[in-house]
Write a structure and sequence with these properties.
homodimer, mainly alpha, MgtE N-terminal fold, 3-stranded mixed sheet, CBS-domain
């Protein structure tokens, strides 16, 4: 009952917004409509389909690019190929190519059908954008931009901008990109500069020092573009080919999404989770990827158990060792995770690099040595009071220092080495570290116990 | 020797750039100069001071706001209060107030001296901005903006913009904010719209549907502003007071920094690291904060040991239990961390909320149950083969299912509950979860062993 009310509320809100949109009186952002539509989809498939069929194509173009990829993948099951083609033609090229890519992930044939219904230019652009690798700057650019040549006067260019905007072919404009007759990029002029010039003036008259000269190659890694945006506070960045010909631009809101995705990936990788899989709707896909990681962890855990197995007679003769032994491993794991996380993050933010490696490792070793000594003292006293065996206190204290020290050292060294070999330091470093802290923890504690106590 | 060459290289680069800057021919971004200056500071204090004294104030204003807070804190030890005052007056108000705040953290008196050297308006603005709480939108805004009234003609406003820009009082302009005579915000017009209108036209003539109506209250949480930027792809956002009077604006590059800081905080919190402390230079401060977290973890680990202690006679009679017991706890910890991390991140990204709690918990319980069954089977077989005790395989398999199931359940429930009680779900949830998975892991394994095997 509650659900039916909710469904009706959302449906009415969406249908009203559609009417308002048609009248030009809508004040709800497409993002918010996308979220409502998602909710409706979760609650009732049929009603979702009903509403989808009623959304006009230009509005749908704005809504659909705010929706997660698993919904884009299935959109062909809800609305006709022809309507999807119309929607695609109304999208910015980066959003359009993403939509076609997502649909092709589910059904390559439908994606081709939709492409065939587009005009040649749109089709070529989408195919071009989708030919880039995921990590290449080109796959994030849009070809829609505002450009002009040096010989043109500003007034003519603005008239062109006006008509492009009226046809809704251009949006989110921050610069005019100046190009020569071969489409080679000369530089960009911010609108805040352009607006100060007279319309009769020619672009040639804009002084050199007002030009923005940043650009990035279409094949370069998107993280290079991200760095330029972060360091130089850019609003948009020109994308050029090997001959410096202007191909497109990347805007700050695209970069914003890239950063958020990178951060999610980093966080997930450290926790042994795959970011792509987690964005899927299927519990099966999510669970399978997580299982792989748990499987790797099982191997690590068994390794640690084998180490413990070496000392079974020691444990048998003093069961207090079994009681205390997880403490050393756990403290090492935690201290190591602290170091690892900080190192991975600071490398990602560009705050430390391979050149600073020695400085970082020194810092981490000092911190872990001092903390190791502090917690060695505390746990030594506790173990002594608990089991009334002074030497047991000494054993756990010594192994605490050893394990925290190695946790700090390896927590810093592992990600630095992985980065050196161009492996993403967030992926896999946790499991290597845990193996180290578990093995060192159990081996040092039980080994020292065998030497000192027996 | 290598260091001396390096010092000289950096010093020469910086001194050259200073000369080029004075001639107006510099093409190095202040960000890159800031990074070089930081390197020089690390290598040689004296040379750093020498170069700092030679940087002209307007360039220093641009460099200093790219430097980390611990360098800003100490800047008064390197250059005179008078120069810092000049530098401050050349900064945007948000950067200026941050600089004064950082200096005051080290020495309140010097901060006051610098403030007293500023003109009254600058001083008031800085004091106003620094009166906001860290989480309030007001503390991220700058008061420099381009505004106009409805009665003004566009040409006059653009002339004003031109002279403000020539005096370097205004930069990074995306909109003109329209206000009434009481400074109340009417709306914003993007430059890409404004440029299309004739200069003779009045702002009153700009149609309603070209106005951007988003704004945020100066006392509202910065995360609300972040959401508006992410959802609606904004470039800048007006900040208003309770009477809707325009106070300032937040730009996308500020929000970008906020997002990166939030992500760092989230990642660090989950790993038991304090983000503020890690930005300090002092190893002592960093180590102390980490020790607090390790101390909490020690209590957790001892709790787990107490649980093991209950079963000391069981372990004594079958030492294989001691060998195998870390496996169950470790797998639970890992599975729980997977769930916890995904839940925390998706809540932060607004993808799941308290209303979806049931759906999220269901999903996580299903995944952990299935993975629990898979790994129960695997570890059951391994334990049986290893120790040749069939019932031991059964015990570890059962406890694996129990622990992975509780890991999935609590990994989802803990952050959702913390969020419900308005506690940051990233902070503290890891330690609560580890306690659960350790205690449940050891208790179920050793408890079942006592029941079934003995």
């Amino acid at each position: 009952m509650e659900d039916i009310n909710k469904i009706n509320d959302i449906k009415n809100l969406l249908l009203n917004s559609i009417e308002e949109y048609k009248d030009g009186t809508s004040d709800i952002h497409p993002y918010d409509l996308a979220k409502e539509l998602e909710k409706l989809r979760d609650l009732d498939d049929k009603e979702y389909e009903y509403v989808c069929k009623r959304i006009p194509s230009d509005l749908f173009a704005e809504i659909l690019c705010e929706m997660p990829s698993y919904i884009q993948e299935e959109i062909a099951e809800v609305i006709s190929d022809k309507k999807i083609a119309t929607i695609t033609s109304k999208m910015d090229s980066d959003d359009a190519s993403e939509l076609i890519y997502n649909i092709s992930q589910k059904d390559e044939e439908i994606a081709q059908t939709i492409l065939s219904k587009l005009d040649d230019e749109d089709k070529q652009i989408i195919e071009k954008l989708n030919s880039y690798d995921d990590h290449e700057a080109g796959s994030y650019m849009q070809s829609e931009l505002f450009s002009a040549t040096l010989d043109e006067d500003i007034g003519t260019a603005i008239k062109r901008l006006k008509s492009l905007k009226e046809e809704e072919l251009l949006d989110n404009i921050f610069h005019v990109f100046l190009i020569d007759k071969d489409k080679k990029l000369i530089g960009a002029v911010g609108l805040e500069e352009l607006i100060l010039f007279d319309r009769q003036q020619h672009f040639r008259e804009i002084p050199q020092d007002k030009l923005i000269n940043y650009s990035c190659n279409h094949k370069s890694d998107i993280s290079d573009a991200v760095e330029m945006f972060t360091h130089y506070n850019l609003s948009a960045l020109a994308v050029v080919d090997e001959e410096n010909r202007l191909l497109g631009r990347i805007t700050h809101d695209d970069i914003h999404d890239v950063i958020q995705d990178q951060d999610t990936k980093q966080l997930y990788s450290l926790a042994g989770v795959n970011d792509d899989a987690e964005n899927e709707e299927s519990v099966y896909l999510i669970g399978r990827k997580r299982a792989i990681w748990l499987g790797i962890n099982l191997v690590t855990a068994i390794l640690a158990s084998i180490v413990i197995g070496f000392f079974d007679t020691t444990i048998q003769s003093l069961v207090a060792l079994a009681v205390l032994m997880p403490i050393v491993a756990s403290m090492g794991g935690n201290a190591g995770t602290q170091t690892l996380t900080v190192t991975v993050r600071q490398m990602a933010l560009g705050e430390i690099s391979y050149q600073d490696a020695k400085k970082t490792i020194n810092k981490e070793v000092i911190i872990s040595l001092v903390n190791g000594l502090i917690f060695a003292f505390i746990i030594g006293i506790i173990a002594f009071i608990w089991f009334k065996i002074p030497l047991l206190g000494l054993v756990i204290a010594l192994s605490m220092v050893i394990n925290l020290l190695s946790a700090g050292f390896f927590g810093a060294v592992i990600p630095i080495l992985l980065e050196k070999f161009e492996i993403d330091p967030a992926i896999g470093s946790t499991v290597i570290l845990t193996t180290v802290t578990d093995v060192v923890g159990f081996f040092s504690f039980l080994g020292l116990a065998t030497l000192i106590l027996l």
